[in-house]
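Researcher: Batch entry, complex prediction.
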Amino acid sequence: MKGFANMLKNISRNKWFLLMVLPATIWFLLFSYLPMVGTIIAFKSYRYSRDGFWASLFQSDWVGFKNFKFLFATHDAYIITRNTLLYNLAFIILGLICSVAMAVVLSEIVNKKLAKVYQTGMFLPHFLSWVIIGYFAFAFLSEDKGVLNQILTGMGLHPISWYSDKTYWPVILIVMNVWKELGYTSVMYLAAIVGIDRSYYEAAMIDGASKWQQFKNITLPAISPLIITLTLLNVGRIFYSDFGLFFQLPRDSGALYAVTNTIDTYVYRGLTATGEIGMSTAAGLYQSLVGFILVMAANLIVRRIDKDSSLF
Amino acid sequence: MAKARTLNQPSRASNTILNIIAAVFSIACVFPFLFVIIISFTNEKALSRDGYRIIPKEWSLEAYRYIFKTGDQLLRSFGITVLITVVGALLSLILISHFAYAISRSSFRYRNFFSFIAIFTMLFNGGMVPSYIINTRMLHLKDTLWALILPLAVNAFYIMIMRTFYRTTVPDAIVEAGKIDGAGELRVFYSVVLPISLPGLATIGLFSTLGYWNDWFNALLYIDNPNLVPLQALLMRIENSMQFLVTNSALSGSGQGMALLSTLPQDSARMAMVVLATVPIVLAYPFFQRFFISGLTVGAVKG
Amino acid sequence: MWKKKLATVVSLVTVFSVVLAGCGGGSKDEGSSASGSDKKDKPYQLVWYQIGDPQKDTDKVVEKINEYTKEKINATVDLKMIGFGDYSKKMQVITASGEPYDIAFTSSWANDYLQNVAKGAFVELDDLLDSKGQGIVKALDPKFIEGAKVNGKIYGIPTNKEVATQRVFRFNKQFVDKYNLDISNVNSLESLEPILKTFKEKEGYAPLWGDKNTSPYLAYDFVTEKLPMAIPFGSTDYKVVNFLDQPDTMKTFETLHKYYKAGYLPADIATSTNSDYQKNGKWLVDMADSQPYADLTWSRSAGYDIVSKPAGDAIATNTSVLGSMMAISSTSENPEKAMEFLNLLNTDPYLRNLVDMGIEGTHYKKNADGTVTDLPAAKDYDMPSFALGNEFILNLYDNDPKDKWEQFKKFNADAKSSPLLGFHFDPSKVQTEMAALKNVSDEYMPALMTGTVDPKDYIAKADQKFKAAGLDTVMAEVQKQIDEWKATQGK
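Model: Structure tokens for the complex:
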């Protein structure tokens, strides 16, 4: 009974905070947690019943882990896992460095009007879909009409069949992804830098600190919680890949699969052959589960080092 | 120029270098977009003959004429989009700012529990079909604007960003000082915390505005009534149809498929749709931008 | 200060958008319940999902449809059009969620017929066709019914149109005339060589065009599209083979590769997805599936003359038969009514033309000779004809050949059935392998089919990958199912 009384006391002490989290918590329950029941489709051979979804769900046969098998059973399993993981690592690290650097650059530029113009420009690729970007990439990389090959032949070099030579694609994919999202991600760091109390910098300057020292001792510590949070969150998505980037940009060229096939593109192609929603659910669950384990582990490590920066 | 601002500026040389870096990158970003605009005004025949050109040989309004064929539908869809974007972004700002603030305070006993509740939803989801059933059968959102607003209202990613902003920019001392003044937790939040969290709020506001503006999938699932279709859904439908017909050889080889395709100004229309969908939101961008880039004195914004 | 500004902006925008959103809204469902005076039961409303971009005048036409169907079969329809690119995705959610509807478009390329049947989404129609759908059975070529059967039962009603496909070479007539090319002897890939050579020499660019989905004519009936399991046309022993290993396939691929190396094919063909060449007219020949008067249709939509020569026989395959169908949902409350409606749609010229072309006098006008001409309002009601039911009772346009439908009927009657017509592979036991095979196929097939690579070592590589992905297992399963099917067919 004492525990219960304690709990009541705690609740009443935290009532304002609880009130603040209440609306979004209800939202989470309705729009996120309730649908999660559907995850059991991953373990079923889903067949339709006349009586609607729930009846279909419960009447369908259990098949254990059969729906997961296609992710592991083949030769390609290693390739798609490796590609997904390595590209995401590159995106996380390079994306982080570039967006922090760009945020610092933008915040330091003296003429704020110009800085605004630059920043607006950087945001534009975010609005272009990969299909559209794919068209432009093709204008550059096309074998007979592409700009790049025209330059190469103009310089007396051999043209390259870009869409069948996989050596260049890891670089192309990484550069294009960073290019597309840099404007978007740097906004967050920019906002964090703007939020830093200017008096720190003024004090540092009076002490004769250089710009680099200011960055190292003031800016970086101030934005490091954001860096840690965003990185942890990205780690949770490490088994997911941007379908458009890996499918549309390389024009689904078979010769490039060794470096462009990721879990998502593999699942997409495989499911056009079977149309089994159990399998797509299974793939999603697998991606989530790996992300979840990695986030929990990473969070534990962060917690050891700096309790305040951990996610929970 | 105030003296205080010039003191900590980078040297002229390094400022030039910074400008060059930012300028080169932003040109690399703007260039394709300029091309999008140019292509949207290029004659389709000229396009397939000459390829993409900075100055096309034949200009044309055909692409826009094709899209505006839908007439008042386009205008109505634009209205719907603006409405759901404004209402949705405000709603999500309210929900997110409160939730994130509570879990950012170390005095909130259950902060870890609620953080976990949020983060868990980023990692796991039930998939499209169960969500569809809950939204249509339980909440009866089908063919209502709420179907376009509610499913996007909360986002754990934004919550975690906002929580971090609160933690780094709202010192405990300020909150405690507010409390000593006799104000309650909520009063402190509204009168002290929110005003100094403007850059963070603007970031979240911007992201969720973009989220609502660009959303077309919810409309595809939940909206059958043509009067409630938002702009992106209208444009994406044309885009998707085009993409489908082009890549589906079974159809495009047949006479009917070819007839369908030949009525579409493909490339230019595609670009025109990007222009129509993007330009309004880009024009609204400076409204948010003033909160990320401003004079160096912004340090402590006085509300 | 910013607060005030923000408040003003927000309220202005809100008011503005409410006004915009409001205009044009309003009355929608009023017409349907208006005439409740007749003594019959309340008319049943059929929910009908149809592929095609939503049209401005759909509501107007549906009102007319309902006036007619209420009187004829005491039912009304609620026609929901979903765009081409979105249809499959939306139907998958609707079906999986068990949302009730009555009729839906289905085919081999959108809202997949076989997958839906396998999962129990559609009502079995044999009895209903007997009781309420005799008109349909009479109108259709028997090959349609045969091909649409899954395990001996039919679950969808094929649209009465061309039952077969015929691979043809299409020529850009402008160049045929210009260089006086002799196409009369063209009947195979090999026979194209002299004219390809002439064109390449004279014009300097590739004569033979296509995209990554292009495939040369191979005389095989494929069990599953683009997977290397097939039965040769004319086969009597029904033995599944890997067509990649066959000598005739090798010869075709070698010819293609020779052409590719000679520059007769565009360099990017294996990754290309656009049909720009048809628009700019810079091509000599390509490959396509034909039907009666196809040259006319092609020429009309291209804006210049196109002529064609057959590359193979007209053959009714599973894919050609399942090109466009209507099915009744297993969630339908009243499948009988749905069948009555489909029967009416496929047999009643008034209803069929109304659904297809809209309202006479508004969207089209009738000419003295019985043909029709589009009116300007036709653009507000532009429907995909081939997806809406029996084409042979459609009005002819003023520029259509008078014997158009006669030619179609003759084409259908003359078409041969492919050996596997009516056999549909059920992949549920080998789904893991199928997913892997599909990935291998996407990786290797486009390059082979477009001649981009040397088939000699490439086929060996592809074979090895297919084997590793489980081709043998799947092939054994296919053979088993074919044998069982054959036994029930008495073949």
